[in-house]
Amino acid sequence: MTTTYRMLAIDLDDTLLNGKLQISQRNKEYIRRAKEAGVHVTLATGRMYCSALPYAQELNINLPLITYQGALVKEAGSGEVLLHRPVPLELAREAMAWVKKLGYHINLYMDDKLYVEKMTPEAETYMRISGITAHPVGDLVAFMQEAPTKVLFVGEVRELDQLELAMRQHFASSLHICKSKPHFLEISHPEATKGHALDTLARRSGLTAEQVIAIGDAPNDLEMIEYAGLGAVMGNASPEVKEKANYVASSNEEDGVAQVIAKFIFQE
What GO CC annotations are associated with the protein (predicted)? Predict the structure, then answer.
């Protein structure tokens, strides 16, 4: 095997995970082979660290995990925090007060815990997807006394599209604002992106962007797809994400991750 790629960063939802939120045996096998061939493999997800960790353990990944879209990079083995870029507190308060008036559900993330105002259908759905318990605490703006790692808003697709545009105009470069799913709009530190975090990990391993493969499917994967020497996306990715990719693989239901590894690391 001769490959120029020495690091592989893989998104979880709708990329590595299938519709049952599971990793297929074929994807597992190719990730194992890549690791045995000396490729650094990590996960790059919008999920909380505690939500991503079980998947890392399933894959025997001991490298730092890129979580919260790049706001928190933390070792899977030791739990050491390598990077934490929280949302500036006053900006988080302003954005949350804005969205509270609109009546959308808000997820607040601090200290790798999920806080909500009250239990709602949106909170219950999110708990089911993430495997994490939500803590209802009443008024989130009043509760929040420290800079949060991330804030997520849940709403209808078109309404969130309009809110995303309005927030980008208002906050400009002082916040990173993007969608991770059609119904999820997220705000984070302006440098809390998967691309920035992946660059940090690559440099730490003495690698250049050209030696990195990033695999994703959603708008919150764009920065790492554009950063990596090879940016690959799933066949189920949205058209605007596919446009930025170097390679479009099969869907997450058809082991697209394994296909990318087979083609570009093992030349199969």
Answer: cytosol
Return the CATH number of 89-188, one of 3.40.50.720, 3.60.130.10, 2.40.70.10, 3.30.1240.10. 3.30.1240.10
From 187, 204, 115, 198, select the one nearest 151 (Cα to Cα).
Answer: 187
Is residue 255 part of the annotated active site? The answer reads no
Helix and strand numbers, DSSP H then E, in the chain: 10, 14
* Nearby residues of 3 by Cβ (< 8 Å), 6 or more positions away: 37, 39, 264, 265, 266, 267
- Stated pTM of the model: 0.95
**Catalytic pick among 11, 14, 199, 217:** 11
